[in-house]
Structure formats: structure tokens, C-alpha cells
Amino acid sequence: MPSPEAITAWARLMRVSRQLVESAEDALKAGGLPPLAWYDVLHELAEAGEGGLRPFQLIERTLFAQYNVSRLLARLEIDGVVEKLPVADDGRGQTIRITARGREMRRQMWAVYGRSITELVGAKLSADELNIVSALLGRLRHPTVID
Known about the structure:
Elements: H1 4-30, H2 36-48, H3 55-62, H4 66-78, E1 82-87, E2 90-98, H5 100-122, H6 127-140
Antiparallel strand pairs: 1-2
Helix pairs in contact: 1-5, 2-5
């Protein structure tokens, strides 16, 4: 059985995580912008550069379920923020790449999302406290990776 301290920490982590994500989502919606999942995908594609990413790589980097990524990519393509390109050595494979419109959408979203991060987290904790929280949360990741 988990200790009372572990249960309390778990419950707070889940509640705070949900609250922070919902607040960021609300800010994006109030700004007339798409949901946070769009930003996550556009960010990963922008970071990947002109080579783009295969859908399985997006799944690994975002941790979305495969069926969610497929639907999300279809929506992003319809809105012109990503493009699907065939993979030369794989007849069924596709590479997903961010478009100029997608880079602009990401920029607009970041203006709101970044402000939310500042207001919800950055303004409430000191730099030392932020480093402590980051280090503690890093210890909970599996597999442990360096961000």
C-alpha cells in the first residue's frame, strides 16, 4: 500500500496538472486559438525542421495515442498547418511537416500559452523553487530522460 504522503503527493500532482492544463486550454480558447494538442504537435514538427517527422515519431514525442494522432493530423492538414509527404523508400509511409501557416499558428499560440505558463507557474514560484519542482518531477519520469 502507498504511504499517506505518497497518496497526498499523487492526488495533488493529478489535480494541479489538470488545473494547469485546463487553465492554459481556456486561455487559448479565449484567444480564439486551437487546443493545446495542436501546439504540442506543431512544436515537435517545428523542432524537427524541414525533414519533418513520421507519425510514429510524433506519437513517441507527444505521448498521444495513435488513433488520436491520426485524427489530429487529419484536422491539422485540413487547416493547412501541416503537410503530409510520401516517404520515398516506404510506399505507405508518410512524413509530416509543419507549413508556414503552421509556424504562424504556433507563434500565435505560444504568445498565449507562454503567458499562461508565466501566470500559472512562473509568477507563483521563485527560480530556485521552479528548479526544485523540475528536479523532483524529473525523478518521477520513466524512463528517466534529460529534457
